[in-house]
Amino acid sequence: MRQTNFPNRKLADVALGREPADLVIREGVLLDVYSGRMIPGRSVAVSGQWIAYVGADASHTIGRNTEVIEADGRIISPGYMDTHTHLAGCWDISDFLKYAIPGGTTTFITEAEAYACALGVEGFKAFLDQIGNRPVKMFGLIPAMVTLSPATESLAISRHDVQELLKDDRVLGIGESYWQNVVLNSNGRVMEMMREALKAGKSVQGHGAGAFDRKLAAYTAAGALSCHEAITSEDVLSRLEYGYYVMVREGDVRRDLEIIIPIKDDIDLRRVILVTDGVNPDLLIKEGYLVDVVQKAVDLGVDPIHAVQMVSINPAEHFGIDHFTGGVSPGRMADILILPEEGVMSPDMVLSNGVVVAINGETKVPLPKVPHPESLYHTLKIDPISEADLHIPLPEEGPEEYVRTIDIQPGGLVTREGKAEAQPLDGQYCAAPDRDLLKVVFLERATGKGERFVGFVRGWGQKRGAVAISQCWDCSGVLAIGAEDRDLVLAVNRLIEIQGGIVLTVEGRVEMEIPFAIGGYVSEMPIEEIARNMRRFQEAMAGLGSTLENAFLTMCTLASPAIPFIRIIEKGYRRFREDDIVGV
Amino acid sequence: MRQTNFPNRKLADVALGREPADLVIREGVLLDVYSGRMIPGRSVAVSGQWIAYVGADASHTIGRNTEVIEADGRIISPGYMDTHTHLAGCWDISDFLKYAIPGGTTTFITEAEAYACALGVEGFKAFLDQIGNRPVKMFGLIPAMVTLSPATESLAISRHDVQELLKDDRVLGIGESYWQNVVLNSNGRVMEMMREALKAGKSVQGHGAGAFDRKLAAYTAAGALSCHEAITSEDVLSRLEYGYYVMVREGDVRRDLEIIIPIKDDIDLRRVILVTDGVNPDLLIKEGYLVDVVQKAVDLGVDPIHAVQMVSINPAEHFGIDHFTGGVSPGRMADILILPEEGVMSPDMVLSNGVVVAINGETKVPLPKVPHPESLYHTLKIDPISEADLHIPLPEEGPEEYVRTIDIQPGGLVTREGKAEAQPLDGQYCAAPDRDLLKVVFLERATGKGERFVGFVRGWGQKRGAVAISQCWDCSGVLAIGAEDRDLVLAVNRLIEIQGGIVLTVEGRVEMEIPFAIGGYVSEMPIEEIARNMRRFQEAMAGLGSTLENAFLTMCTLASPAIPFIRIIEKGYRRFREDDIVGV
């Protein structure tokens, strides 16, 4: 962002009063994130995208055409930064920003694994084009692509491409990589990516869920610089001790903000960061993104200065961008909020790159859509299947008494290996919806070879029909669960036809379909419509017997290494503790 | 430093206990600079140059050949970092390190303007070779070369060379640049260097002496990221507000540490750094470098954790090297101190890059000298002078009543313009030692053209003889002051013969000479001998009538833009307020 043409001469001249500013914010209380003070009586002069002057009196910078905004004793704060999130999935970025900007988030650093799962490096580059030219700052992280699926591994970004991408100003480093794979399983490719990122002076994002002591140390020694997987106060402390920037999540997947409350007064918070880790459309519409997290922190007793530091200068320092954003200071870009009063974190006005982008909750800049390349609309590289493809034949020596299952645990994310009484019929093991034994299918969609595995799942609850989705986390595939083979086939084949999304079939008909045709992850519908559809889907699932709170989310994670203990990929069940792949 | 071959796989394996550590420090109290806590019961495992594990029990990393050091309840601290200093002058680096290492300084980030004043980019590169391969971390900053002397300006490093140098791992950015020149006088060359450094993700060191409000804002907007010129508590606050890393000096030139005491409990200290700004040989020998500053901070009431943060993680973050040094954590280099007890900041043991480099005040590693290129021994490009070259002719219309002088103020650094009764004789203005009116000469030594100016100085005090030196700050020149022309000529000509240093002449003989033949700035004598000689020189000056506390330092600064208000260069007197050059 601070290119060689950074206008430092001009900014200096504006500060000196030799040239007029474009915009002046007059007479506010400066929230100084650097020294941790509130400084009354401060005005800010902006020239182009940049802050030229901050001080007691900016009148020397006001010319005939200078726009003057009266802060009038309100608080002048840096824009908020969400530095661990997942924006590369679900919605169109333009549509997302309409909701996120009014809450004061002016910098987004996002994972982008979905685009890489869809189309490898080509997909990631297409995502960079989505974020590169927005009225707010958006940066992407190169997906580490720690996947359980060998087919998906073929989409991993090569060392050469990583080196080239690290030179891109839109790229701030390597995205999250699950520690187990990196540290325990000797994933040389990810180790190499980490080295390249560190060598390039960029960041390495970590994912140390459940790791402590020697395993966490090993992951740290491998190069991870942040962790957003602390779920207790003790986790926060152990990660800080290892020099991590600890990103505390309060979003869609988990809400852990409260873990900092018991320790907030006893430690240096410089390496604590608040993040969303992504939100779903419903949460976005209702809560307005990161501002909700900042407000909650303040409501829980966090000093507002600390709360703002945790979403501005702390992450800016972590990502090495504090020389151009993260604070209201000369020579930084004008990413500024006017907050109504101490303790109220929702801004009256949002400036980004020197432009007023939102006032009183309304976005004030056009957010044109950026077209996706045609190739991203054809990423379900699978031929249609038939019922025969879903058969689980009995062993030649006759049926076993039990079959192996994935048992979804309460909460819907963690799974355990289970043993269910088999349901043999006509030479196959069958589903038994009456006792919650359903078929689960994973079809890889990366290679065109259509490799797949059919197993069993419990804890899903659906009594009739089938669901197929393409939004698997960390895997390029289609995942389907169903009570009946006919509905499973229909759901998968319809999903292939619409090239991604969610298809629900019941009794031989398509009951509902929600297209996510861009890479199989992103929908072209407006967010409100996505939210409405997702609610309808959840209601339909409940109507079909599912007891899960968020059936879609559960399904998304079933092939991902993010959550223990047993997952499904095209080769079979992947067991974490045993570190093996097994069949039914 | 974190090259692509960073051994992250091996470090992870050591952390996991799959491979033995090379060295383990057992059972200390970890000074955790990240969270600001003291954590008892910690052991550290080191593999090669790196820390692999930190935690409650490192016994799983101990193999047959692992060296075990018992911390035994003592404090395990990161090594100290001096990040604003002047090591590129005076002494040989090897010799310097012998004194600096036992006090626990394991990282040095130094200005290098002397080498550039001697030989431009070639000189700077020769300095990088001096620091590049030491048992401690040493980094150089590209000299901004803000000089008053047009001849010296010809040695400034070109944009192309700056771009190339910024790629060098030994280079962390652009060195200090005096704000007046950059901001007020439109020095486009330095503005461009700043942009290049920021573009390359490296640092821009500032020098905002006496600047505040709009002038300080202008300098900040130009790109300066640090300032080591705060001399009051208010200066600290105003610089922090502008996002500066504030480097508080306690060294040779100034001792300002106490300014942080009144504010230390009210502000976030994350951007406060303690530095020496360089020390002289005497101070180095007596006080042991940065450890003296850290100890003084603690003695003045600074929390030892904060004191260590101010010389470890704070500067490491500022320079973007915190991912490999600045804290005791896995994946960082093993730059570690064992401190005897809380509040005692002088280490029992110093590790650098995983090697024990000092024990109980004694350096334990060889420090071989690195030869300098032959060209650095021939940098006084001046032909010998004669008395006629020092004549200050009277105007044709007859002598003026007064001549213009540089009046050295008490303290020896600040000067003011003065007006002295002229001493006309034989068609010239002459010196009048009896009323402290001496000749001062500046001869540029960069171009070979030998341009020079002869003026007058008061406040120097010397009654007889003359002195010539080559160690002018920020200028490639020879500076001489004398009561008699004959002695002036002899001093300058002898200095040219020995190619730099200090020559004192009295009554037609060389009374004392101290050679600094490397670039005219660096002596090949051992530090003890330099210190002894400098003391002898000061005594000699006092004996000749000088009342200055440090006559050599006063002389060094007489051609530098660092200190107001009037200086001498080859073109005449350089006046700061008037921004002009004038004669006598």
List keywords for this structure.
homodimer, 584 residues, alpha/beta, 9-stranded mixed beta sheet, 16 helices
Topology at a glance:
2 copies of one chain form a homodimer.
Chain A: H1 8-16, E1 23-32, E2 37-47, E3 50-55, E4 67-70, E5 75-78, E6 80-86, H2 93-100, E7 105-111, H3 113-131, E8 137-142, H4 150-153, H5 159-166, E9 171-174, H6 179-184, H7 188-199, E10 203-204, H8 213-222, E11 226-227, H9 233-241, E12 245-249, E13 272-275, H10 281-287, H11 290-299, H12 304-309, H13 313-318, E14 336-339, E15 349-352, E16 355-359, E17 362-363, E18 392-393, E19 402-408, E20 415-421, E21 424-425, E22 428-429, E23 438-444, E24 452-458, E25 466-469, E26 477-482, H14 485-498, E27 501-506, E28 509-515, H15 527-543, H16 551-557, E29 566-569, E30 572-575, E31 580-582
Parallel strand pairs in A: 1-4, 1-5, 6-7, 7-8, 8-9, 9-10, 11-12, 12-13, 19-24
Antiparallel strand pairs in A: 1-2, 2-3, 5-14, 14-15, 15-16, 16-17, 18-22, 19-20, 21-22, 23-24, 23-26, 25-26, 25-27, 27-28, 29-30, 30-31
Helix pairs in contact in A: 5-7
Number of strands of chain A: 31
Q: Which runs of chain A of at least 5 residues are low in confidence (pLDDT < 50)?
A: none
Helix content of chain A: 25-40%
The value of Rg of chain A in angstroms is: 25 Å
Strand content of chain A: 25-35%
Mean pLDDT of chain A: 96
Gap between N and C termini of chain A, in Å? 53 Å
Quaternary assembly: homodimer
Number of helices of chain A: 16
Task: State the major sheet of chain A.
Answer: 9 strands, mixed
Most residues in contact: chain pair: A-B, 75 and 75 residues
Structural class category of chain A: alpha/beta
Broad shape of chain A: elongated
